[in-house]
Amino acid sequence: MYSRYLTAVASALRLHVRGHLDGRPANVVDECVSTLAALANALETGAVPDQDMIAAWLAAGPVESPGVHRDIADEHCDHVEAIRAGNGIDRPAIRSALEAERVRGQRAMDRMLGLMTLPPAKTDDARSGIDPARVEQFLREASGCPDLLLSDFKPILGGRSRQTAIFRVSHAQGLPSDLVVQRQTPGLDNSFGGTAMEFEVLKALHDAGMRVPRVLHMSSDPAILGACFMIMERASGTPVQSDFWSMPTPGYAEEMARQMAILHAQPTAGLAHVLPRPRVTSGREGWLAEAEMLSTRLLCDSHGPSVTIAAALDWLRNHVDGIGDTETIVHNDFMFHNVLAEDGRITAVLDWEQVALGHPAEDLGYVYPVVAMLGGWDRFIAAYQAGGGRAVSRQEVDFFALRAILRLMVLVFDGRVAFESGGTDEVVIAGAGAGFIQRLHQRLSDVLADILARH
């Protein structure tokens, strides 16, 4: 499986980086691709050997012969020892091994050269991105503007479960000039409540005065862009946090708390017919059942045992009685990287695909680790409650801080399973399944240590 991850990285470098470089940077990228391709070859899987052999193989580094893989390494060792002992190379078994190594080596070299000579994509959306011509045609029909023209189409980072691009339109009466298209990543079962649900929720929240993008069109017809998508007006501003792991720009936490309070104060009745309700009940039994579901999923999809995960799940089970039976609309990814700001003011809260009915502390616990690192949790919770947010206990925040990370791990595992099974070749999904999940585990460890120190 390591081979698949390395191949995805090598392909991404060739497709989306190499074409933008020349001179020494281009040579460096070529050497990186060559190295990754060789490592992918060395780790090409066959029959699964015992764990001691895997450990020895990984510790040794890349093999000299591209035709030797883990599944036949022990057999080749026997043949090498026989030759060294003076048994010659005329025996049928040796000749057969030589030919097998030659044939396998050629196949391996073909894979390596295929990666190393992959023609770079002319644009970043050339392979699996959103087709701007199809977006233009859709908007012409949806808006009734046959002369509409699309320009300045630019794919941007839009999360690991969706693809996003910004663009401009002209000759489009009634449409804003700056727009955004978002579609689910093809090959991933990651629609949560679905694009139609998200579209309706955003319309309602925008009408209620919350700072969210103004949605314009949506479609669940895969014949148009290959997956469900929606188009919205582009909000001004830049992300408060450049990515999930960076430190946020200071000064926005309290305003973010007030936006969260507005969300949690919204009546649920008007959207209850479209919002998912992940648990049968919002009380103790529902949260206990979810903890068991998380435990089952983590045990099933983890690549190895974790004392931290086991301890976090145990803490949830032992503190589920402290969760109040209350229900609000929750974002489920209300973090600084999903908040745009401009001139010292939040302009939009983004990425609503996981919105659902749940406990208000789901959003509070999710953002807690980052706000705590900023040293402003007391101010954050005070601003939240002053803005009309629900009353929550510290134990509820602790519970949902752990639960949020465990739940996110399960969501990342979903993507990792899709990647490892061949459902998608997206390097962003590969990165989540390799590095992102390890960083999540470390955050879980830090949050759990903080909680245990206080209880």
Description:
The protein is an alpha+beta fold. It folds into 3 domains: about 1-115, no CATH class; about 130-235, Phosphorylase Kinase, domain 1, CATH 3.30.200; about 240-455, Aminoglycoside 3'-phosphotransferase, Chain: A, domain 2 (Alpha-Beta Complex). Helices cover about 50% and strands about 10% of the residues. It has 15 helices and 10 strands. A hairpin with a 5-residue loop joins strand 1 and strand 2 (about 160-170).
Order of helices and strands: HHHHHHEEEHEHEEHHHEEEEHHHH
The neighbouring-strand order within the major sheet is: 1-2-3-5-4
CATH topology of the largest domain: Aminoglycoside 3'-phosphotransferase, Chain: A, domain 2
Give the overall form.
Answer: globular
Tell me the structural class.
alpha+beta
Q: What profile does the largest beta sheet have? A: 5 strands, antiparallel
Low-confidence stretches: none
Count of individual beta strands: 10
What's the number of helices? 15
Going by CATH, the homologous superfamily of the largest domain would be: Aminoglycoside phosphotransferase (APH), C-terminal lobe
Give the distance, in angstroms, between the N- and C-terminal Cα atoms: 41 Å
Evaluate the radius of gyration: 26 Å
Q: What is the highest CATH level, the class of the largest domain?
A: Alpha Beta
User: Taking all residues together, what is the mean pLDDT?
Assistant: 87
- Any guess at the CATH architecture of the largest domain? Alpha-Beta Complex
| Residues in helix, % | 40-55%
Beta-strand content estimate? 5-15%
Tally of structural domains: 3
